[in-house]
Amino acid sequence: MINEKLISNIIQLAIGGTDKFLVEVKVRTGNRIMVFVDSDTLLTIADCAGLSKFIESHLNRESEDFELSVSSPGIDMPYRNVRQYLKNTGREVSVITNDGIKRIGTLIAADQQGMELLEVTKMKKVVTELRHRIKYTDIKETKEIIKF
Fold first, then answer.
1. What is the per-residue pLDDT across 76-104, written as a single tens digit (0 to 9) for each?
2. Is 20 exposed, middle or buried (0-12, 13-18, 19+ CB in 10 A)?
3. Which of 17, 31, 63, 87 has a 20 to 30 Å separation from 99 between CA atoms?
């Protein structure tokens, strides 16, 4: 049976020791496998195609058919792991905590336990800067704010 753990283990064989990292694996009904990977530096289409071929070479279509897609997480996808926070330090993000509070600010630091957000508010001519230390366990969702 194809499951997330099996796919994750195969991926780790391929990307271990590189700057690539696994963000998420989803296995849907009908063995629709979706793999999201990222990189600390640059992730190319060739990287995704190569990983797809590697995964396929470790699965047997004769015993169980599957559909596979490998891509980077979309810009609208929430952060899933610490390396995404580390990689995106300095970017503007929206954070929703488990208690429903939404904060928008700059991700200024991240470590294994949590992240630090700089929230700047402007009321008339007064600028207020608040720093929030937020544990990952207290975060429901973090998304990058994209400006055009």
1. 899 999 999 999 999 999 999 999 999 99
2. buried
3. 87
